[in-house]
Structures are given as structure tokens and as C-alpha cells.
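#structure-requests
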Amino acid sequence: MTGTECYRAALNLLSETRDTGAYYEQFALGALNQLLVNSLREINAVRLSHGEDALAAPPHMTALDEDIPADEHLAAECLPYGLAALLVADDDKAKFNWAASEYADRLLRHCPAQLSAIQEMI
């Protein structure tokens, strides 16, 4: 999924079209990069579950027409909701709360289990 496709999906979630939501496009790349930073734990969990090395730093996009540097399912199922939330954060609190809640819920369901050492309780 490209950044442009994610942006269009976010507009769709907000009941906006390319014309009515054109104002938001200027913020889309920065918001996507912020989501990549916020999702590094999940990105690395997926990478490790696929036998890949974890990233030391979050991936970064320089243009919306680039592929989102994250698992395709994370990009398609979670990021549009997070992007929608960030795009309307200052304009519509109800839409922000709904989209942010959906993003958080989907992110939790998407992330594979992470194993940790057992700690003895005293």
C-alpha cells in the first residue's frame, strides 16, 4: 500500500472525497511518518515473527507515492484509521476519538504475541 492509497482510505473513513478533503493532503506525509514512529514496536514484532531483524529506528517516508515501509496488513488495516485520526485531530473531536479508538483496537489485534521471560513473584 502506498502513502497515497492510505491517505485516500483515510479520507473515505472520514466521509471525505479528494475534493472535499484536499486540505488534509498537506498533512498526510507527516502524519504517516508519525504513525510509523508510534508503530515501531508493532512493526518490529511482525518483522521478528517473519524471521527478519528488528529495526533500530522507525522507517521514514519522503513522499506519499512511496510504499509504506510496514507489513501490508498493518498498512491496510490499521494505518488508515490512525491517519484519519491525526488528520482531524484539531477539527472534529468526535471523528478523532472514533478513528483513534479504531486504530488502537486494530493495532492490538494485529500485533503478534510477544514472548517475555517469566519473572518470579515474591
